[in-house]
Design a protein that fits this description.
The protein is α+β, with helices and mostly antiparallel strands and 423 residues long. The protein is built from 15 helices and eight strands. It has a domain at 14-296. The two termini are 19 Å apart.
Length: 423
């Protein structure tokens, strides 16, 4: 239920688990037990009410007429067998049609799997497969019996040429192996939390908590891959190198409203802006239900949010004036994506971690190299900082068990206080 066959004891790696995951797991287990309890009560009532009349007879007929209720009564006791069969078929399909990572096939990716397994204390190296992506950016982890495996879509390997970003792939593989280490694919965990997926909001919240836990594992395994992974998830394998992680994370604090929250509540994964915010600021856990407060933004806004009144948005003339008088702190030589086989002068991470706020253009403005290493102060701070954020005094380890806010360097976030005991 908790530990994915690691050496870290029955509770697994507590420091990397999102604080909401276990309470939501308990709610999921209770929901499933209540569902099976209700099934037993209904079956007992149907077996003992053969001579029922009136309303009771009418309700009984609804359960026995072969309709939806009858199908539900038949399927519920078969759920454990169905889950077992589905996992067996999926594993068989991977073994039959996918490319298995090994020391001789995709050895670099396989090494990432092995190193993540060692990092998280797995007793055995999981199987790993490359699946034809057909343009999809995805990866997943699962198991069958005592066997565990991860599958990575081929498009994640196509961040190729000199624009290739192996750290982004390392983060994603660490995320998937983290699902294994945290026990998320355990057969009994799935069985005892199966019915919660049919409870609106609760099932999705449970899934999002697990994803944050897996992100914590990905960060522990490859902190340098944060910006690349978020860029790929938000902008794709070519445009991903141009996605500014600060801008993405700050929008989590400014995009607000009921409908935006609803889009998160109905999602099995945290929305990208909230996810980027949680990965950038390691002093607090990722948000499950309510957006981060605007006080946690690091930079002033460079564009209005979609939740603002439309009369606050600039006119075309106003925005053209801004575009003509400012520039990005680190100009990109190809804003429409980075492609295999092409050399680019500006390092990816100078774009990803640059200030998202425009700077004056022309002789009065800073040079690209000066702007790259001197960002405007985060909202609420007075002094500029170098490529990141200095946490307020007293802000140390957060509830996720990670270090305080990770300072951002030109190479991405670092863990300033590594703690081997939590891995």
């Amino acid at each position: 239920m908790l530990n994915g066959a690691t050496v870290h004891g029955i509770a697994g790696i507590r420091g990397l688990r999102h604080p909401a995951e276990i309470p939501l797991l308990i709610a999921a287990v209770l929901t499933t037990l209540m569902g099976y309890g209700m099934w037993f009560v209904v079956i007992s009532w149907l077996a003992g009410s053969s001579n029922a009349t009136g309303l009771e007879a009418e309700v009984r007929s609804q359960f026995l007429d072969g309709g939806t209720l009858s199908q539900v009564l038949l399927v519920i006791p078969l759920v454990p067998l169905i889950v077992w069969a589905v996992r067996a078929i999926m594993y068989a399909q991977l073994r039959a049609s996918s490319v298995q990572m090994s020391p001789t096939q995709f050895p670099e990716g396989y090494r990432m799997v092995v190193e993540a397994a060692r990092e998280f204390g797995l007793r055995r190296v999981p199987d790993a497969y490359v699946v034809l992506g057909n343009g999809q950016i995805n990866a997943f982890a699962s198991g069958h019996g005592f066997r565990r495996f991860v599958a990575v879509y081929s498009d994640l390997f196509e961040i190729g040429g000199q624009a290739r970003d192996p750290e982004a792939l390392r983060f994603i593989i660490g995320h998937e192996v983290g699902h294994l280490a945290a026990g998320h694919v355990s057969y009994f965990r799935l069985i005892f939390s199966q019915l919660v997926g049919y409870v609106p909001f609760l099932g999705q919240a449970f899934s999002r908590a697990q994803e944050y836990t897996a992100d914590n594992h990905g960060y522990a395994n490859a902190p340098q891959g944060v910006s690349g992974a978020m860029g790929v998830l938000a902008g794709g394998k070519y445009l991903g190198a141009e996605v500014n992680t600060h801008a993405l994370a700050d929008r989590a604090t400014r995009e607000k409203g009921f409908w935006l929250h609803l889009s998160n509540w109905l999602s099995s994964h945290p929305i990208n802006t909230w996810r980027a915010h949680a990965l950038r600021d390691r002093s607090r856990p990722g948000r499950i239900m309510i957006r981060p407060p605007e006080s946690t933004a690091w930079f002033p806004p460079s564009a209005p949010s979609g939740s603002g009144w439309s009369d606050s948005w600039p006119t075309p003339e106003q925005m053209l004036s801004v575009l003509e008088s400012t520039t990005t702190s680190v100009p990109s030589e190809e804003q429409f994506g980075r492609y295999p086989g092409v050399s680019y002068e500006t390092p990816r991470n100078e774009l990803r971690w640059a200030s998202p706020v425009p700077v004056p253009a022309g002789p009065a403005g800073p040079t690209a190299s000066e702007a790259a290493y001197s960002t405007p102060a985060p909202a609420g701070e007075q002094q500029p900082v170098s490529y990141g954020y200095t946490p307020p005094a007293g802000q140390e380890d957060g509830p996720m068990g990670g270090s305080g806010t990770a300072p951002l360097s030109p190479q991405g976030p670092q863990d300033p206080h590594p703690d081997p005991g939590r891995h």
